[in-house]
């Protein structure tokens, strides 16, 4: 039987999303599995496999599945392992031979693994805006809780010597800047993630007495900052300008590395496109060598956020 | 007749070096041609071709030349053009169709062109330390008058979408830092080139009254700083520590992009290995994510400086 379908799985700290996908990126069946609190990898993976097999059954494509693609934090393409992923209790303190175990539990269907930002880049290439615009060289930046990246060079994902290439969220944006969750200082992620932008707002509120819709709010999130900006709040608008300026300056450095045709932004914070686009593009161009100035496109993902994680992971399996 | 030899040409602002090279990196014949002050590309290229043909004749390998590889400032692999190269009067104000013109003037021998730092990386891969150590993922950083780079990923040079990938000398090392020759601020080149290191020394001498062997010297060069450091001069030693610290911090960002096995340093300033190695390595590791800490090698080119430019360019022609 022809194998014209794949399964995409996005493994997250809160839940895992799975779907059966055809070659055009249509999701035939989908499911969400709540994250297990178990620290036993075998138990977690067996449960996941049960969900996968049930979903394949439900899709009516049993026997037609070419492979399973998985995007997971700290997933390694070369080794098939998930290692030291702080948000996954079953893979937080060591290395789990994930691809092999899941494949065995799914009756031998081949499993391919990479990290979530790489999966997002593959999704954009196979189904998204990079496919639409026929772009073969781009850098995907995911602006979520953290900042991730996937680098596509000549239509192929860059894995580097060890499978970990593309940790652009932890390149230095501000020398000796804010402490980042990774332990280093001044990482791009500390400024341009959803958490980073909210932190900027909180810091500025503390440092000044400026009036703002955000003043007095508890546990300010990037969504709060977005809503305030929408309502014309000046401090909130400046937060996006600042965030975009730092992001754009870093993007210029990335362009000078791999000379892509485009940067593609995705993730929660990228939904604030209306506030982020201009300062980011300006800072990128201001910091580029003349040979690239005004030549590199700044794009936003064209995939629906609900589907993107599944599609990205599924793209690995073709 | 088997074509087992190539010609390597390194085009510089002062002179061009050429050599006939065999597969093991042995230079059978070599020549240096003083740079022409002519602004006529045809005249300059015809003169160069005359030199090339004479050298081939002298080497006794006429009819056995597989190709000509050329490293030149702003040389583009994809287009074969040299464009807006400030140090080459005949290619300073426009784009010269170099490869095509040189090939025609050399009786049709194929010509392949790239920039000088890319050529250096190819030389290291074909004949140098990357070959010795069987390293397939590395970043070559040339610390000369400027800072150049060539990025090898899975044994291939990274050209990017337009042939200009790898301008790491113009990534930002110090946000809003020193003005660089390119017009931007804080570029790595403004600190870690030979000129940058000398500039650090001059700035520090001006800012303090600290005793130093360099005090009172006119037109301090990086060689002067090196000689002073050799003699134990504290300010000069600190210049190298500072230069290495900035370099290493930037190297960490580059590792987080492409996850190479090694960084290879080359060029005039890299001769100060004894003073640069430790601070550079320390800063790189201090700024790396734990997955790479103490795992990426910091190497120095194993090629003789006099040969490296010719060998690097020749490596293109295989």
Give the SSE map.
The structure is a homodimer of 318-residue chains.
Chain A: E1 5-11, E2 15-22, E3 27-34, H1 41-59, E4 65-71, E5 82-83, E6 95-96, H2 98-105, E7 111-114, H3 116-126, H4 129-132, E8 138-143, E9 147-153, E10 156-157, H5 189-192, H6 194-207, H7 222-230, H8 234-258, E11 262-266, H9 273-286, E12 297-300, H10 305-315
What fold name goes in the CATH topology slot of the largest domain in chain A?
Nucleotidyltransferase, domain 5
Name the biggest interface.
Answer: A-B, 38 and 38 residues
CATH C-level category of the largest domain in chain A: Alpha Beta
Tally of strands of chain A = 12
What is the subunit arrangement here?
homodimer
Order of helices and strands of chain A: EEEHEEEHEHHEEEHHHHEHEH
CATH architecture of the largest domain in chain A: 2-Layer Sandwich
How would you describe this protein?
- 2 copies of one chain form a homodimer.
- The first copy, chain A, is α/β, with parallel strands linked by helices and 318 residues long.
- Chain A has 2 domains: 5-122, 2-Layer Sandwich (Nucleotidyltransferase, domain 5), CATH 3.30.420.40; 134-302, ATPase, nucleotide binding domain (Nucleotidyltransferase, domain 5), CATH 3.30.420.40.
- The first copy, chain A, is built from 10 helices and 12 strands.
- A 5-stranded mixed beta sheet of chain A has the order 3-2-1-4-7, sandwiched between helices. In chain A, strands 10-9-8-11-12 form a 5-stranded mixed beta sheet, sandwiched between helices. Chain A has a two-stranded antiparallel ribbon with strand order 5-6.
- In chain A, β9 and β10 form a beta hairpin.
- The two termini of chain A are 16 Å apart.
- In chain A, 56% of the residues are buried.
- Chains A and B meet through α8 of A and α8 of B.
